[in-house]
Amino acid sequence: MQYKDDNVLPNLPADIIRCILAGAPLPDTFIQAIIRRIKAEQGNVSFHRACSIKAYLNRKYRITNKRELTVPLNEKETRIGYSLGRLFAVLEKLQEDAQPGINATIRDRYYSSASCTPKAVFGTLMRLSTHHIKKLENPGWKINAEKRISSVMDLITDFPSNMNMENQGLFAIGYYHQKQDFYTKKTDHKNTTKGEEV
Prior knowledge:
single chain; mainly alpha; 8 helices; about 60% helix
């Protein structure tokens, strides 16, 4: 995670070191700063930001005896933030396939609101997906797109009105994992990948 010195909260580095030495969860201001930066850059979940969010969440889960996040995409993960992040990545990929070379994707317009207030946004995104599927020329692509959407939707029982900071972090990780999975050769999944794993 790269920040200019004037963008870092004055007490944050000292708070992080104190938490590490004490074996305590990382400070909430840590994840808040990362999420704020991601939103400011229209959903730019970089490798380092995803690593930082995962470190925050897994440290918290380890201390509270909750299930930690895995390294690659976890298609059985049911936590709502993670599933919604995956769905958002699937819908973005569909748009890119339907409109190759598009200058701005749904990420640029909807990432912030989708990660904070899913109920207000995903209805629109699902309607757009129907339009995008119709634009796919290859019938196999249409089937694959529908299967991807359906497999993630099976894990989602409802779209929350609001998501807390933890779920916004899970959203970012789910989004990042799903996007990386698109660029991973399935045959090489156990050995090497094109992308970086978190």
